# Entry
Amino acid sequence: MKLEELKKLREQKKLEHKKKKKAYYLKSKAKKAIDYEDELRNDNFALKIKEIAKAQKLHVDNRLALIVAKMDEYKRNKQEYYLENKDKRLEYDKQYREQKKEELKEYRRNYYQKNRSRILKKQRENRLSNQKE
# Structure
Protein backbone atom coordinates (compact mmCIF):
# COMPACT_ATOMS: atom_id res chain seq x y z
CA MET A 1 0.00 0.00 0.00
CA LYS A 2 1.07 3.44 -0.75
CA LEU A 3 1.18 6.27 1.74
CA GLU A 4 -1.74 8.10 0.13
CA GLU A 5 -3.95 5.03 0.33
CA LEU A 6 -3.08 4.60 4.02
CA LYS A 7 -3.97 8.23 4.74
CA LYS A 8 -7.33 7.87 2.98
CA LEU A 9 -8.08 4.64 4.83
CA ARG A 10 -7.17 6.27 8.13
CA GLU A 11 -9.44 9.25 7.44
CA GLN A 12 -12.26 6.93 6.44
CA LYS A 13 -11.94 4.90 9.66
CA LYS A 14 -11.78 8.11 11.68
CA LEU A 15 -15.01 9.40 10.08
CA GLU A 16 -16.76 6.07 10.68
CA HIS A 17 -15.70 6.18 14.33
CA LYS A 18 -17.00 9.76 14.69
CA LYS A 19 -20.34 8.75 13.18
CA LYS A 20 -20.65 5.84 15.61
CA LYS A 21 -19.80 8.11 18.53
CA LYS A 22 -22.33 10.70 17.39
CA ALA A 23 -25.05 8.06 16.92
CA TYR A 24 -24.37 6.66 20.40
CA TYR A 25 -24.49 10.15 21.92
CA LEU A 26 -27.73 11.04 20.14
CA LYS A 27 -29.26 7.71 21.12
CA SER A 28 -28.48 8.31 24.79
CA LYS A 29 -29.78 11.88 24.55
CA ALA A 30 -32.96 10.99 22.71
CA LYS A 31 -35.98 11.03 25.00
CA LYS A 32 -38.80 8.65 24.61
CA ALA A 33 -42.06 10.32 23.71
CA ILE A 34 -44.49 9.63 26.51
CA ASP A 35 -48.17 9.42 25.68
CA TYR A 36 -49.64 10.81 28.88
CA GLU A 37 -53.23 10.13 27.86
CA ASP A 38 -52.43 6.48 27.38
CA GLU A 39 -50.56 6.41 30.69
CA LEU A 40 -53.51 7.99 32.51
CA ARG A 41 -55.93 5.50 30.99
CA ASN A 42 -53.69 2.66 32.09
CA ASP A 43 -54.58 1.22 35.52
CA ASN A 44 -50.93 0.80 36.45
CA PHE A 45 -50.38 4.57 36.49
CA ALA A 46 -51.52 4.97 40.10
CA LEU A 47 -49.32 2.08 41.14
CA LYS A 48 -46.33 3.63 39.38
CA ILE A 49 -46.92 6.94 41.16
CA LYS A 50 -47.12 5.16 44.51
CA GLU A 51 -43.89 3.27 43.80
CA ILE A 52 -42.10 6.49 42.84
CA ALA A 53 -43.35 8.26 45.98
CA LYS A 54 -42.30 5.33 48.13
CA ALA A 55 -38.81 5.28 46.59
CA GLN A 56 -38.43 9.04 47.11
CA LYS A 57 -39.57 8.80 50.73
CA LEU A 58 -37.12 5.97 51.34
CA HIS A 59 -34.31 8.05 49.83
CA VAL A 60 -35.19 11.05 51.99
CA ASP A 61 -35.39 8.88 55.11
CA ASN A 62 -31.96 7.43 54.34
CA ARG A 63 -30.48 10.91 53.88
CA LEU A 64 -32.18 12.09 57.08
CA ALA A 65 -30.48 9.35 59.06
CA LEU A 66 -27.09 10.35 57.60
CA ILE A 67 -27.66 14.02 58.36
CA VAL A 68 -28.73 13.31 61.95
CA ALA A 69 -25.69 11.08 62.41
CA LYS A 70 -23.38 13.82 61.11
CA MET A 71 -25.00 16.39 63.42
CA ASP A 72 -24.54 14.09 66.42
CA GLU A 73 -20.91 13.51 65.48
CA TYR A 74 -20.36 17.27 65.12
CA LYS A 75 -21.89 17.90 68.56
CA ARG A 76 -19.75 15.20 70.12
CA ASN A 77 -16.56 16.53 68.50
CA LYS A 78 -17.40 20.07 69.54
CA GLN A 79 -18.03 19.00 73.13
CA GLU A 80 -14.72 17.10 73.22
CA TYR A 81 -12.89 20.11 71.81
CA TYR A 82 -14.38 22.45 74.40
CA LEU A 83 -13.54 20.08 77.24
CA GLU A 84 -9.95 19.73 76.03
CA ASN A 85 -9.45 23.48 75.58
CA LYS A 86 -11.50 24.76 78.50
CA ASP A 87 -8.61 26.57 80.21
CA LYS A 88 -7.46 28.21 76.98
CA ARG A 89 -11.00 29.40 76.23
CA LEU A 90 -11.49 30.83 79.71
CA GLU A 91 -8.19 32.68 79.49
CA TYR A 92 -9.05 34.04 76.05
CA ASP A 93 -12.51 35.14 77.24
CA LYS A 94 -10.95 36.93 80.20
CA GLN A 95 -8.48 38.78 77.96
CA TYR A 96 -11.26 39.64 75.51
CA ARG A 97 -13.47 41.10 78.26
CA GLU A 98 -10.57 43.16 79.60
CA GLN A 99 -9.79 44.47 76.12
CA LYS A 100 -13.42 45.41 75.49
CA LYS A 101 -13.63 47.04 78.90
CA GLU A 102 -10.63 49.23 78.09
CA GLU A 103 -12.03 50.09 74.66
CA LEU A 104 -15.35 51.06 76.21
CA LYS A 105 -13.62 53.28 78.79
CA GLU A 106 -11.68 54.99 76.02
CA TYR A 107 -14.80 55.43 73.93
CA ARG A 108 -16.72 56.97 76.85
CA ARG A 109 -13.83 59.29 77.64
CA ASN A 110 -13.65 60.50 74.02
CA TYR A 111 -17.43 60.84 73.79
CA TYR A 112 -17.58 62.92 76.94
CA GLN A 113 -14.77 65.19 75.76
CA LYS A 114 -16.41 65.75 72.37
CA ASN A 115 -19.88 66.40 73.79
CA ARG A 116 -18.94 67.94 77.12
CA SER A 117 -20.79 71.21 76.66
CA ARG A 118 -24.00 69.52 75.53
CA ILE A 119 -23.88 66.99 78.38
CA LEU A 120 -23.26 69.71 80.98
CA LYS A 121 -26.13 71.77 79.55
CA LYS A 122 -28.54 68.82 79.86
CA GLN A 123 -27.38 68.18 83.43
CA ARG A 124 -28.01 71.83 84.39
CA GLU A 125 -31.46 71.72 82.84
CA ASN A 126 -32.29 68.55 84.74
CA ARG A 127 -31.11 70.06 88.03
CA LEU A 128 -33.16 73.20 87.47
CA SER A 129 -36.28 71.26 86.60
CA ASN A 130 -35.81 69.06 89.69
CA GLN A 131 -35.42 72.16 91.93
CA LYS A 132 -38.62 73.75 90.60
CA GLU A 133 -40.61 70.63 91.42
About this structure: The helical segments are 3-29, 36-41, 44-84, 86-114, 116-132. The CA atoms of residues 3 and 9 lie 10 Å apart.
